[in-house]
Amino acid sequence: MPEEQYIEPKGESGAEVAGDEPLIDLSQFSPKGDVLVIAEHILGDLQPVTLELLGAGRILADKMEKNLLCIVLGHNLGEMPRLLIEHGADTVYVADHEELKLYRTLPYRRVICDFLESLPEAPHTALLGSTTTGRDLAPRIAAHFETGLTADTTELDIGPYEHKSKVDPTKIGLYPNCLYAIRPSFGESLKARILGPWKNPQMATTRPGVMVPLPRDSKRKGEIKQVPVNLKEEDFRLKVKDIVREVSKGVKLADAEVIVAGGFGLGTAEGFELLKQLADCFENSAIGASRKVVDLGWIPYQHQVGQTGKTVRPKLYIACGISGAIQHRVGMSKSATIIAVNKDPDAPIFGFADHGIVGDVYQILPELIKQFKAAQDGKDSTQNLDNSGVKAVVGAH
Ligand SMILES: Cc1cc2nc3c(=O)[nH]c(=O)nc-3n(C[C@H](O)[C@H](O)[C@H](O)COP(=O)(O)OP(=O)(O)OC[C@H]3O[C@@H](n4cnc5c(N)ncnc54)[C@H](O)[C@@H]3O)c2cc1C
Is the distance from the beta carbon of residue 81 to the nearest atom of ligand 1 less than 6 Å? Predict the structure, then answer.
């Protein structure tokens, strides 16, 4: 969209249009600028959401014909900056300091805000993960620059926005190149497209597991630049004495290729034992759950899939006794294949599952376990699904 099409929706004097809604301050609006990803790692362990953000950021930057920047803070980061280039960044800014080894809000906020202020032009968009760190850091940066921030986005895009005066429809403000920060809203029943182009950077955090990383390209070229670190005494109000990392047993939901998930239809916490037997038919499998059963204490929270749990996209998702409420669906609908087992033929999950099995989990699952074990050739058990597994047992829905 050519920039010339941008018209300020102001009265001739530049004053507020009488009787209209309050005037938006356009003095800092700019459709220009690069896209920035703020990388996240835990003691040098790069978090997957960073690569996902680079994948999404690359699409936005290409759409605007701009560069994709990435900033990473830490100490002795080794090959990490290079890895960020291989996953899509054009320029990686590295802030290396002993005091940045571990994430702390104030030092990280200081370095990132100083860095942004030092750039000749503010980035158009700044993206962080909707992780504990991203949710802590993003609002601090947004507040410092008095810019907007959309939390927990599931889609990102670039496009125009037309602001029409309610009093005089001929007064139109056309904003090209706005960040469309899209997220489920109203109990996940609607998708809201949230715009805040009045000031750059337009900021968003994005749910882990939603965006798709680019494949690693070891030949990709990019620049690595050092960022000055000027920390102040007041940045050290918090002292970290010790770090205790909880190691969860088994495969993490986000990494699993097959997820067998249970809901209230299991009737009891013991039902998960049957699900584990089914999950054991596959390599790299994990157990998921609906919120209802997590709230009942049948299974710990780290297994919860959905709006207030994890977003997953495995090769295969087997939903057992789960109704398919929208809050659950948003966390698993991007799975490559969904199989649902539910005794109610009208359960909403059958509306979006690839294969539906109507019946009691306690009758169906033992049969499925038997069939999957028989169908397995011991290599990639997920490849056997369509030709020999579920359809052979019950037929496609
Ligand atoms: C703000 C908010 C956030 C939320 N976040 C999440 C979230 O992150 N994740 C999430 O999952 N939910 C979330 N929820 C809750 C969500 O709305 C649903 O209540 C929940 O997903 C329902 O769980 P369920 O499918 O296990 O239970 P139910 O809706 O009770 O469904 C049970 C299903 O099991 C079937 N069934 C019963 N017995 C059997 C049997 N023997 N064999 C086979 N099928 C059987 C029934 O037909 C039914 O369809 C959220 C809700 C709100 C308001």
Answer: no
